[in-house]
Amino acid sequence: MKYFAIALVVFVASFATPSSARQIGAFKDWSAHSEGKGEAQTCWMYSEPVKDEGKYTKRGRIYMLITHRPGEKVSNQVQFTAGYTFKQGSAVQVVIGEKTFELFTNRDTAWARSTEDDRNIVAAMRAGASMIVTGISSRGTKTKDTYSLSGVTAAHNAIGKTCGVS
Fold this sequence. Notes:
Elements: H1 2-16, E1 21-27, E2 30-35, E3 42-47, E4 51-53, E5 63-69, E6 74-81, E7 91-96, E8 99-106, E9 109-111, H2 115-127, E10 130-136, E11 142-148, H3 152-163
Antiparallel strand pairs: 1-2, 2-3, 3-5, 4-11, 5-6, 6-9, 7-8, 7-10, 8-9, 10-11
């Protein structure tokens, strides 16, 4: 629980104060950013889906995020935000090529269960061409979001270099 709460606070703070954040670069379908210095530095990359499917009438912003916080010894933290509240106790399925991963949910976000899962998801993203993220809303609506992975490796390299994470 603490794992995703910290990242959520960092992410919200980063987007709530865009003047203090800087864009490292845009890499095809992914964007890389950083904020802060030294122990307080955070680097992240994100993208929105190229296709979102489901029988819903209203949905908020949808995105996938990878974060490095070297001062906290956090790297490659994966977060998916659905644009709706997930069904309580549900899981999100992420499919990249032949690999499938399961994320746990809390409110409108989904997280990898371990740092090892984070690393494996990021490695699969770097090697893949597309990623499909499937979830279920609190109203029982199934959604399927397709992300292009074009630019993932360059964006990941950029945030790694900026935050000193290899």
